[in-house]
Amino acid sequence: MMRYKEEKDTKKEAFRKYLDSSGVLDALTKVLVALYEQNDKPSSALEFVQQKLGGPSVSEYENLQAEMSDLQTKYDDLLAKHQETCKELEEHKNSHNTTSTKEAIDGEPPKDEL
């Protein structure tokens, strides 16, 4: 039982050192001190922390999600149009090749289809 507790403490200490060496502890401490020093506490402490750490606010996040959804829809529409255009181009090439093949067999130039 004692060995398990020692392993757990060792893991905790290693994780604490990792957070300290990567600057996470300093960043969190600064943000929490800034929150503590606020005279008028924000309605959402979590949003305050996210903003101070450089993340978007909830409203900014929602706006970005909506923009991403709009862009995905536009992308899907453009992709479908592109695929349709490629299909039409392929059909046109095939009809042109068929006409050229007929000309080679009949010896007559194709009639202008336009």
TrEMBL record:
GO molecular function: transcription coactivator activity
Broad class of the protein's primary localization: nucleus
Cellular location(s): Nucleus
Gene3D superfamilies: 6.10.250.1060
UniProt keyword annotation of Nucleus present: yes
Family designation: Belongs to the AMY1 family.
Name recorded for this polypeptide: c-Myc-binding protein
Biological source species: Acer negundo (Box elder)
Lineage, opening ranks: Eukaryota, Viridiplantae, Streptophyta, Embryophyta, Tracheophyta
